[in-house]
């Protein structure tokens, strides 16, 4: 039998990379089943979603109904606590590297608002301006300014002002927060942090020392003013699944320093306008729709840049219809259109109508999305 040429053997599926700073995959996009197995989290099943609805007396959020938040760690334990009449708190965050939030940035905040409203619990929001200084070509002053600008967009989401604390690392880190950082840092070896995050010898020590900063908001003792005397209060973190490495590390360390492990509920990625195989980037304003975009900007981006699921010809399109598995307009409506029946109806219309519907929906509901 003749041997296969090395050039032919090279046609292997591209390995996907998912971490807090890089998300890449082959032509098929992210394999979420593989990611769940790789990270060791659990699938969010119908029984848990039904339980959330029962305990809150609210219909499940569309992100839950449509599997957009799809994985978790110990969510069942959080629901056990709540069912017994006890509380927990929420923690989410934002790394401010752009002037404004885009629709993808909004997803965890929209879902966190739903959780806060449904469970009536406190929330802490971390702005990691220090992280962006360490990873991006930004000055300290510029990182802090972007954090303030992003905070305005986050506040506009409408969180309960009596139950919400927003802080930036440059302005807040110290005291009990820093004490917890040092406790975490002493428990994580260099080899361990390299194994979790993939740091290389070329990375400066600022990057290597950063993970404890994002870990410790999981511990209520980091906020003595807000959770005094309640050091064992459980924490639930809504986030995209690329943030999971931080909290795998945190969950490993927590029992060793006398704290509860944080629970997580994790989402799929929000696609760039050019499709799931590209990444939304602040350096390419046409890769995303920003909350500061005008109606004209939105229309241009949707019509000109939104990746189409249409066929190569009118004849093929009439015969086969659009490929809704890759069509970005449908994917965006899947995130934002509340009415399930209307979404199914839209899926049956021709591609041009899908694009028109996405633009019309975003423009007519822009103010609602910002609430």
From TrEMBL:
Q: Which GO terms describe its biological process?
A: post-embryonic development; reproductive structure development; tryptophanyl-tRNA aminoacylation
The cellular component terms of Gene Ontology attached to this UniProt record, alphabetical and capped at eight, are: cytoplasm
- The top EC class, named as a word, is ligase
Tell me which Pfam families the record gives: tRNA-synt_1b
Q: Which SUPFAM superfamilies match?
A: Nucleotidylyl transferase
EC number assigned by the record:
6.1.1.2
Q: Which GO-annotated molecular functions does the record name?
A: ATP binding; tryptophan-tRNA ligase activity
Q: Which top-rank group of organisms is this from?
A: Eukaryota
Q: Where are the transmembrane segments?
A: none
- What's this protein's name? Tryptophan--tRNA ligase, cytoplasmic
> Carries keyword Nuclease?
no
Q: Which UniProt keywords apply?
A: Aminoacyl-tRNA synthetase, ATP-binding, Cytoplasm, Ligase, Nucleotide-binding, Protein biosynthesis
């Amino acid at each position: 039998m003749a041997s296969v040429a090395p050039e032919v053997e090279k046609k292997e599926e591209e390995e996907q990379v998912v971490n807090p700073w890089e998300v890449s995959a082959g032509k098929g996009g992210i394999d979420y089943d593989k990611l769940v197995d790789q990270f060791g989290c659990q699938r969010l099943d119908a029984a848990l979603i039904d339980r959330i609805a029962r305990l809150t007396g609210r219909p499940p959020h569309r992100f839950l109904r449509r599997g957009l938040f799809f994985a978790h760690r110990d969510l069942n334990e959080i629901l056990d606590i709540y069912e017994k009449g006890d509380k927990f708190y929420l923690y989410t965050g934002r790394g401010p590297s752009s002037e404004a939030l885009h629709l993808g940035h909004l997803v965890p905040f929209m879902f966190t608002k739903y959780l806060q409203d449904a469970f009536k619990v406190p929330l802490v929001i971390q702005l990691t301006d220090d992280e962006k200084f360490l990873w991006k070509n930004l000055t300290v002053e510029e990182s802090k300014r972007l954090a303030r600008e992003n905070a305005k967009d986050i506040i506009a989401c409408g969180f309960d002002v009596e139950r919400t604390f927003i802080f930036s690392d440059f302005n807040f880190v110290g005291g009990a927060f820093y004490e917890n950082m040092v406790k975490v840092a002493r428990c994580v070896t260099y080899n361990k942090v390299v194994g979790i995050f993939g740091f290389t010898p070329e990375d400066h020590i600022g990057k290597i020392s950063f993970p404890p900063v994002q870990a410790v908001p999981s511990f209520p003792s980091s906020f003595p003013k807000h959770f005094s005397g309640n050091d064992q209060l459980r924490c639930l973190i809504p986030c995209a699944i690329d943030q999971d490495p931080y909290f795998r590390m945190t969950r490993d360390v927590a029992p060793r320093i006398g704290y509860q492990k944080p629970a997580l509920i994790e989402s799929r990625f929000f696609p760039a306008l050019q499709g799931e195989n590209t990444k939304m980037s602040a350096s390419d304003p046409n890769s995303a729709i920003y909350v500061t975009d005008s109606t004209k900007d939105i229309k241009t981006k949707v019509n000109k840049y939104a990746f189409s699921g249409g066929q190569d010809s009118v004849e093929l399109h009439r015969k086969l219809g659009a490929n809704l598995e890759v069509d970005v307009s449908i994917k965006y409506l899947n995130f934002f259109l509340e009415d399930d029946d209307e979404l199914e109806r839209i899926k049956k219309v021709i591609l041009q109508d899908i694009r028109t519907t996405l633009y019309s929906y975003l423009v007519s509901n822009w103010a609602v999305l910002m609430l």
